[in-house]
What we know:
Strand content: 5-15%
Strand order of the largest sheet: 1-2-3
CATH topology of the largest domain: Helix Hairpins
Number of helices: 4
Largest sheet: 3 strands, mixed
Structural class: mainly alpha
Number of strands: 3
CATH superfamily of the largest domain: Stage III sporulation protein AH-like
Radius of gyration: 58 Å
Number of domains: 2
Distance between the termini: 157 Å
CATH class of the largest domain: Mainly Alpha
Amino acid sequence: MNTKRQTIWLVSMLSLMVILSAYYLFTEDLDPSSSKVANNGTTTEQTTGVQGATEASTGSKDDAIVVNEVNGSTQTQTDDNATADTEDISAADQKTLDQLESQDKATATTNNVFNDLQYKRNEQFQKESDQLWAVIANTTGASTEEAGQAVTKLDALSDKMDRINALEEELNKLYPIAVVDDQDSRYKIVVQSEKLERGQAADIIDLVTKTLEVSPSQVVVQYVP
């Protein structure tokens, strides 16, 4: 009898333990579930917050792009202003540029004058030299006397040209450009200068008479600005 009661008591205790275990088991399952729901809610809110932050970042990026565009416009405006300033400067200096252009044209004209004088003189020298050489080379048509005279004239012509070249070299030390224009028995000395004093002209005449061995009456001095 006692054994049966003990058995019933043990079975009852076991049943109670099973019930208590089940109770605690279900109770623990419910708490994590609630926590999970709460966590899910928090996670959802955090995710929403992240999305908002992303959108804010995107908005900031767009704002930066707008700023860059404004800077670009400002730079363009600055460039336009610089161009306008350059145009204003060019307009202000137009008179100076015109003067420089006029000076360049005047310089070119002056150079043409001297080049033309030298070209004509050298051309005349070459023509006379060719004529004398033709007489010297014509052994059948020209006499010995004529050939001898041609040689003498050719030597004198060469000596005169050497003296003229030496004279021009000396004058070029004093003036930018100088040309000796040979006009038969007269010599016109043309120098580049803004002005020429009487004393300077006298010095040129003195140099010419000594170099070419001619009289002052055979020398004319002219200057070209």
